[in-house]
Protein 1
Amino acid sequence: MALFRIVYVSEAAGPVASGLMPLVDIIGVSDRNNRRDHLTGVLMRHDGRFLQVLEGARADLDRTLGRVMTDSRHANLTVVLDAPIEQRMFPDWAMARMEATPEVEHFLAQNPDGPDVAAEVDRLLASLVETNVGAQ
Ligand SMILES: Cc1cc2nc3c(=O)[nH]c(=O)nc-3n(C[C@H](O)[C@H](O)[C@H](O)COP(=O)(O)O)c2cc1C
């Protein structure tokens, strides 16, 4: 079955911008739903912004993104990558929470519509693979 990867950034709104428990809530629900839907990925928060990577089949991704896009706990969601993939980057994680790498922090600090977005996204994805995802 064809697999796709989506990466988006968004601005956290309300308590989820800095609190731990609201973030844990999101990870809990995501882990449960994403197992059911065979989706995998990671969620990072830094300075009140989210970056999420989601991988899976098209219909499952679209249905989940449809829910996520209308979630009032964040706003200004911008998809910065949506592409077919050969294999999953995070096969073991229905939804892991990880600290942002320096590359992700750098990306979140700038305009997600900038000219070098594709190269930046490649760089930040490489930085995630080097990190021991889900170890925290
Ligand atoms: C930043 C962020 C990331 C989210 N990621 C996911 C996700 O990967 N999977 C998911 O099912 N819901 C995710 N959610 C939650 C959805 O917006 C929604 O609340 C949830 O899917 C509803 O699930 P339920 O119908 O089982 O209650 C996320 C929400 C936010 C704010």
Protein 2
Amino acid sequence: MKAISLVWLARADLSNINSGQGSGNLTELKTYSHGRKPYASGQSVRRALFDTLARTYPDKFKCLAEKPCGDVENCWACDLRGFLAPKAGEGGDRRWSPLKITPALGQIPSEIVTDMLTRMSVFDKEGRESKDNRIAHVQLAENIYRVAAVIDVENIGRVLEPDIETKGTGKQKEEIFNGWKPVIEVDKNEKRKRIQAVLDGIYNLSGFAKQARSATSLAPEIVLITIQDVYNQRGLKALELDDSGQIDLRALGWILDEHQALGYKDIFGFTPGVVNNENELLALLKDKGIEVLPVHNAFQQAKNLVAEAAL
Ligand SMILES: [Zn+2]
């Protein structure tokens, strides 16, 4: 097992996630697709995931992002989040996060709401944001969001350094690069614990509490979990919705076929009432021989595979 990729859909109201000043200020809501659809940045989804993890494992998260301790062996924050820490002397210490996370992209365009927004005055005479405008923002932010993540299983709890051999002396001296050698490698059970914690963190993804006063969750309601023996980010396009809330089944079928051909293991978690073509979706999964599980079971099955994996 080299990687676990996850793509999921969640119904959410993200009106406050991207706003700086709490629930009063909704003006920073981001949109894409010519302002038709809302999104939350990958950065804010990451922060939510790490907040969720830190709340569950306070003793394992030994530092804050602003002041990384750099102890990958013992600190889950530094291992999973990665860091850039200035070093005394020259250069710095850098770790790339073994978790890649996409922005949360709203899937359903809100033409009517956008139209409302452009026609309405944004502020009233006293300079306050108009109430109607706020309502429009909230409506725009209510959507089905698609998020994808890849867990780089191999590099969790591991730090590599270049293995450089010096040969000869004086002018004949040369440095030979012999590849990479691990300088930190946590034991396999510790590694399993960290991977399983990340899976739980995604399942429970709700760390937006600090920014939003209302409960906001991007926890998966429909999820495709893929266990891969190669690291790549190929499957992340799965579960795209069209404007009417239907999953693109042609693309999904294509991706599932590819996974099967490559020997990847797909696990599908499902909640009824999220997408508009669920009967066709379930028929496709049956046709591809993929069992449809309640979302918590899908995550449990992935965690079981991590527990059994040789790594
Ligand atoms: Zn740390």
